[in-house]
Amino acid sequence: MRIALLEDEHEQAQHIQSILSERGHYCDSFPSGQSFLSAVLHRSYDLLILDWQIPDMTGIEVLENVRAQLNWPIPVVFLTQRDSEADIVRALDAGADDYLSKPAREAELVARINALARRTNPDNEKEVLRYGPFEINTQQRTIILHGELLTLTDKDFDLTLFLFQNQGRLLTREMLLERVWGLARDINTRTVDTHMSRLRRRLGLNPENGFRIKTIYQRGYRLEAMTANATEDAAPVSDQV
């Protein structure tokens, strides 16, 4: 997973990053609430880890901003020295999904993160996924629309599956390159744009089929559920590549 860590103590941040990277996760660390929020609201992460006491704002304030501004319920874990019952209740009431006390116990931290990932993405363990008129078989790697088998390349299938499993979530081009192509900014982003344009046509992503790929200006893409009479909002977006 891609994880964003809010931790102002450099050695502690490095320690947590080391734990997570050894388990195959990618972790960015930020020392302030403002730098953390800027990254989280403009990049794509799978999970957030928050400290409570940071220089410019509290972890609770950061969490409240995340919940108010992010367009999907990203899982959030508090990792802090504050361990009173009142603090735990306050964090959970503010929208945290889990709460751990410092110092972090490596095995427990990783286990809780993995448990949150499973709860957040239950479709990952299913063989057949259904989204409106779309039926996706993850084992046979096929997609059926209104009972008809669609002709897709392997990469188109991978991209489609990732979009539906992250429905409603902003996906940056960088994240798509990493997750679908297995690359990190090593190819021209027009590759992503070209595949998105093709998927719109091949999947019939329109109001009649209940979904569309929305291009978020200078940021990435989002698969959205819609109705036949849905109208465009006022955000700076485009459905053209």
Structure description:
The chain has 241 residues and is α/β, with parallel strands linked by helices. The chain has helices spanning 10-22, 33-42, 59-69, 85-93, 106-120, 154-165, 173-181, 190-202, and strands at residues 2-6, 26-30, 47-50, 76-80, 98-101, 128-131, 134-137, 142-145, 148-149, 171-172, 211-216, 220-225, 237-238. Helices cover 38% and strands 22% of the residues. α2 (33-42) runs parallel beside α3 (59-69) and α6 packs across α7. The chain starts with a strand and ends with a strand.
What can be said about this structure in brief?
This protein has helices spanning 10-22, 33-42, 59-69, 85-93, 106-120, 154-165, 173-181, 190-202, and strands at 2-6, 26-30, 47-50, 76-80, 98-101, 128-131, 134-137, 142-145, 148-149, 171-172, 211-216, 220-225, 237-238. It is α/β, with parallel strands linked by helices and 241 residues long.
Please list the strands of the largest sheet in the order they lie side by side. 2-1-3-4-5
Give the SSE string: EHEHEHEHEHEEEEHEHHEEE
Q: In which range does the helix fraction lie?
A: 25-40%
Described by strand count, sense and barrel closure, the largest sheet is: 5 strands, parallel
SS field, number of helical segments: 8
Number of strands: 13
Distance between the termini: 28 Å
Q: Over all CA atoms, what is the radius of gyration?
A: 19 Å
Structural class label: alpha/beta
**Beta content:** 15-25%
